[in-house]
Design a protein that fits this description.
With 639 residues, the protein is of the alpha+beta class.
Length: 639
């Protein structure tokens, strides 16, 4: 289909009314043709987005009635009497007591101004933006030939209605223009089943800078990293934001991403949002079937797969997520283009439920799992050539009943890409796998390691950027030692600790170090740091709490931990250097700034309850918020 054909059908496509004059099969084929055209045509997809935006504006407009004075002026005018058949009166000035009624005229019911659809619906042209029409289920059609004045009251009533609708359309257009000027915001794309989000904070867009964003009471809040102003709500109070919201990766030269994505638990739709609090947009793909209460499904395996699925491509131009719009407990994979607003359904060779989507480092390919009849497969989809590659037919080659896919990721090398995954159950990881998918890659998956591990975590930067797994062995059912293994062919596992009871192990951001708690009891253990290249194990401190988990700075050179009474920063480069912080109390959260290696956000739940910005170099403290929280912090940058 070409652009002219698609533009003529966009209105019906948006209103899901293509089947009015077609058979069901023809309408479905037409819908697929339009959808295929929209995926590749920026012009038509932009026009469709404009249609949705206008519909949203009209849906937000209040229903108004003319004032008594205006109503009196309109319905006592000579033009009104001329049109409706009240064509004889004694004096030039209107005398309502001496009007002579045409026998064919009908009175308008007071308080009920009628809206009439102008024929044609939405229309576009090559040079102008589409203009929305005000539509009702019935649209009167003009007669083929004009009647004599006074000879057909139906035509006059229709003319009156058209005049009224034109007046109202002008008023609506003026009010829309005023709202756009006043709010300076792009409203969300809405569905007819729910109300779009309200405009952001009255203060307008947030100013440029680095911000940390957190979830509190079902809303997202944003606070500048320098503490120059208080936290501001990013999402409307009417929306309940789910855990699993994500921030786009930082672009080259930036410290953090500038877009967010979140799921509204009440309406079951994905939203995208600019980091400055503007352009909160509803992605029009429903996550669940219409009519199903979302609260009944979020705790199911299908609901959890949806809530955990959102992931941004490297440049933030695409957002992947899974949804079950048919209500069959079968999730499908969708990819949103934030540049065009188009949504692509990833085709599957088999019917099954999608989970674990993860983008390749170059942002071109996306790997994901598909579960069908109890068998989990891994596929790789190329967004440029739309090709599908089967990575493995069944992740559970060992046949253990409870074994499933646990983690799925990519290597960091874009020139020799590889997909790696772990299989087992929580607390019992049984195998680690890799398949190289670049030129000269292996045709079959390779098993890296097999056993019964308490924990297995992967780092793309582990051991000199080659990508490495870190796993904790078990002994007599208890956690034992740390072992690492690379993704390279023929890699040999490297034992990092001996005679330990390792818990809560985690990589540093640069993959050079691993920290863990040894012999943990009642949430307190001994903190160690291991250099994965030299296997040097350094004792850091005793009496360290596992909640909050110790946190690495963005450059991987500092580690902060809490003893229940005090927070301490340790410099792990060379010999350990300790920096006890002035702020005291039981911390509930640590988060290092992405732009400064010496700025740290700490939340306290006792003593000095609140959120604080700490300068670890000067050991100064600035309170950012009086109310603490336990949700994760993600960082954004407003250009």
């Amino acid at each position: 289909m070409n652009c002219e054909q698609v533009e003529e059908l966009l209105s019906a496509y948006l209103d899901d009314s293509l089947a009015v004059e077609e058979t069901a099969e023809a309408a479905l084929e037409l819908q697929h043709s339009i959808a295929a055209h929209l995926q590749d045509c920026v012009r038509c997809s932009t026009t469709l987005a404009d249609f949705r935006r206008f519909d949203t504006l009209l849906a937000q407009m209040p229903r108004i009635s003319p004032s008594p004075a205006l109503r009196e002026k309109i319905f006592t005018s000579p033009d009104y009497f001329e049109l409706t058949g009240f064509y004889t009166y004694k004096h030039r000035s209107i005398d309502r007591d001496h009007l002579i009624l045409n026998k064919n005229a009908q009175r308008d019911t007071p308080g009920r101004p009628q809206l009439v659809a102008l024929p044609g619906g939405r229309r576009v042209s090559a040079s102008t933006s589409p203009t929305p029409s005000i539509e009702t289920p019935t649209s009167p059609q003009p007669r083929a030939q004009a009647q004599r004045r006074g000879g057909n009251w139906g035509l006059r009533i229709m003319q009156t209605a058209i005049v009224a609708s034109l007046l109202l359309t002008l008023g609506v257009g003026s009010l829309i223009g005023w709202k756009l000027w006043a709010q300076n915001a792009h409203p969300a794309v809405s569905s007819s089943t729910f109300t779009p989000p309200a405009a952001p904070a009255p203060g307008g867009p947030l100013s440029a800078g680095i911000y940390y964003v957190f979830l509190r009471d079902g809303s997202l809040w944003s606070t500048p990293a320098d503490g120059s102003s208080k936290a501001e709500r990013l999402t409307p109070e009417s929306i309940t934001v789910a855990d699993g919201w994500v921030v786009s990766p930082p672009l080259p030269g930036r410290s953090a991403g500038d877009k967010l994505a979140y799921i509204d638990l009440q309406q079951a739709f994905v939203h995208t949002l600019r980091s400055d609090g503007q352009s909160d947009t509803v992605v029009p793909q429903p996550l669940l079937k219409a009519g199903i209460a979302p609260s009944l499904l979020w705790d199911t395996s299908t609901g959890e797969a949806i809530l955990d699925s959102m992931t941004w491509s490297k440049d933030g131009s695409m957002l992947a997520f899974v949804a079950d719009p048919t209500g069959a407990n079968t999730t499908s994979l969708y990819i949103l283009s934030t540049e065009t607003g188009s949504i692509q359904l990833v085709p599957l060779p088999i019917k099954g439920s999608v989970s674990h989507p993860v983008w390749s480092p170059d942002g071109i390919r996306i790997a994901f799992a598909v579960s069908h009849n109890g068998i989990e497969s891994i596929l790789d989809y190329n967004t440029q050539n739309h090709g599908l590659l089967n990575i493995t037919n069944n992740v559970n080659v060992q046949g253990r009943v409870s074994d499933t896919l646990l983690n799925l990721d990519w290597s960091s090398d874009v020139n020799a890409p590889a997909i790696t995954w772990s299989v087992g159950s929580i607390g019992h990881v049984h195998s680690l796998w890799v398949r190289h998918v670049g030129n000269g890659g292996n045709a079959f998956p390779q098993e890296l390691s097999q056993g019964d591990y308490v924990q297995a975590i992967y780092s793309r930067t582990g051991r000199n950027d080659t990508g490495s797994w870190l796993f904790v062995t078990s002994y007599l059912g208890r956690a034992a030692n740390l072992v690492s293994i690379d993704l390279t062919s023929g890699a040999i596992p490297v034992i990092l600790t001996r005679g330990k009871q390792v818990n809560f192990a985690q990589w540093s951001p640069d993959g050079t170090y691993v920290d863990y708690l040894d012999s943990i009891s009642s949430g307190v253990g001994t903190l160690h740091v291991v250099n994965v290249n030299t296997a040097a194990d350094m004792l850091v401190s005793v009496g360290v709490t596992n909640d909050p988990t110790p946190a690495w700075s963005a450059d991987g050179q500092q580690l902060v931990y809490n003893t229940g009474k005090q927070s301490v920063v340790v410099d792990v480069q060379g010999s350990l250097k300790f920096h006890p912080l002035k702020i005291r109390g039981l911390a509930s959260l640590f988060s290092w700034s992405v732009s400064s290696p010496h700025q740290l956000v700490i939340a306290l739940n006792d003593g000095q309850t609140g959120v604080y910005l700490v300068d670890t170099q000067r050991n100064t403290v600035l309170q950012l918020d009086q109310q603490a929280f336990n949700s994760p912090i993600l960082w954004t940058e407003i250009p």
